[in-house]
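Input/output pair, single chain:
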Amino acid sequence: MYQPSHPIPVSIVTGFLGAGKSTLLNRLLGDPALADAAVIINEFGAVGIDHLLVERSGDSVIELANGCLCCTVRGELIDTLADLLDRMQTGKIKPVNRVIIETTGLADPVPVLMAIMAHPAIAAAFSVDGVVTLVDAVTGIEALERHDEAARQVAVADRLVITKTDLVATEVAASFAKRLAGINPTAEIVDGAAPMAASPGLLVAGLFDPARKSAEVGEWLRAAETGHDHHHHDVNRHDEHIRAFALLAGALPSRQVIEAFQHRLAREHGDHILRIKGILAIAGEPRPLVIHGVGATVYPSRYLAGWPVDCAPETRIVVIGADLSEKAVRDLFASFLNRPAIDRPDRAALEDNPLAAFGFRR
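Output:
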């Protein structure tokens, strides 16, 4: 295996669903200082779109689409990093000066850390240059109270970025920051609206040091290292309550149609929606439309400059819900498209490989 003269720093960017990881990543990758960075993106669910939302083309963006980055994907991450080294050695890609791993919002970051720190060959070539965790000022408290993964993401962080502070009162943001400091007193807390949050320096957090973390984090790391944390994951299911599914379609009639669908969905099922995101084709519009939502909140849609390379102009929307009726969502979506909600003839094939319909290979 190719060994660089110095370990390549690895920045792990994590945070619960809807915290703004892809938005932050796009902002940072626009800086020339990260022109030679490689990006590894992991998402939950069989139909991946986050890699399409990163506005950078080429081989430097790598997708891991096998569910959450936990023990079952740890081996794939190791293989991906090893392959990255091999491609640099053989001249297939130019050397990278940093690796950025964006985890799914449902990921426990501990197995990601151990994939790098506990594998001798990988640890010799890469070093963890800190964990940056994004936390949503609007929904962060609820996420911490309802989801262990959100609390782990905060506890492991070297730097905490509070996003969407402009959407809450100043005293609410201050109280939230105090709550985060109680969970992780050693992490630096950064306002997502501050210049620091738009600087590549945000990723330079210093060598990850387990000794500076809480005793609980130390226990998590030891459990992951000894393999006592293993469990199986359906690619679309996180636990008995949380699962993901995709709404697939051709070009939608108009931007207004999808926005009306989003607002209706949020109004009727917002309590059960953890995340909705999509890249959509709109009839008569050459650019793809990107939509986002968390819970009952619908964020403004926006157009990308153009369709990503090798991405057909089709509509794909990923919905991640907790005790959410997939049938209710599909029926509602179909009603806005003025067509009955029936199973597609190739549904079985799509379930085996949902990306095949768009020319993606496993």
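The chain has a mean pLDDT of 78. The chain has two domains: 8-226, 242-358.
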